[in-house]
Amino acid sequence: MILFFILGWVAVLARAKMELPEEMVRAMSYYLMASIGLKGGIELAHEGWSVSVILACLAGVFLAGLLPVIGYAIIRCFSGLSALNAAAIAAHYGSVSAVTFLTAATFLTRQGYTYEGYTIAMMAVMESPAIAVGILLARLSSQASTQSDGDTSFKEILRESLFNGSVMVLMGALIIGALTGDRAQEAVGPFFFNLFQGVLCLFLLHMGVEAAKRFSTFREVGVFLTFFGLLMPLIGASLGLFTGWLLGLSAGGTMLIAILGASASYIAVPAAMHLALPKANTAYSMTLALGIPFPFNVILGIPLYFWIARLIT
Description:
With 313 residues, this protein is mostly helical. Helix content is 82%, strand content 0%.
């Protein structure tokens, strides 16, 4: 899968025309979301909503709300960016990348390691809190309040963050898997699980192309934001590793929580930020979300976090 991601980079460097149709990319996104949601739901059906599951989900919500605050504080203290842009960027780093999570889960399977199924539920509940916190940070700043769109109500913004298409597919598939359990495995398992790795390869090929295209814009975001793009995954991964250790998860589960903390959203959050803060510069956040943490986590972060998770567990 990682080699397909690198292939996308090479294609752009070689100026080869390698672009997948937008409809196909959207369909693959929904497929991957539904697949991982179903798998997590089936695992939840086996384990049930125990105290451990509830505590893990609450820890995920807390982590997703804390990371945007940390990111916002760093940007505001050490850069000249406005509060509006700082809040928009920070929200991306508090939310999660489902594709990075899927790649890490596949890595664990290849290594022969298992992980707690409810880590997928944690991924599902961590998508929206960062969006809400990012918007609140922008609203609480007087500078952001004068630049943002006053016609957009917070109720509408909250609805967009909770009922975004990707969030709905992920949460809906999770619930369906939890309600049907092994029946879902028997009925749709061959489609959603047997083809999963092949679809992930094609999607990572597309993401490699997109990340390579945005790499040239690093000079626009500046040296500081490039450094910030490398720092935040390490901060998020450290908090994730500590959270996994605190919850008593296995090495595989702890590594996945580290990935959730280290990743940055480039699907749900950009859509929500476009609605809530339309005057924020999306080039900053998208360049950072796709250009730095995604390739860093996929190529270097996953084995690094896995090694540390094995040490501490």
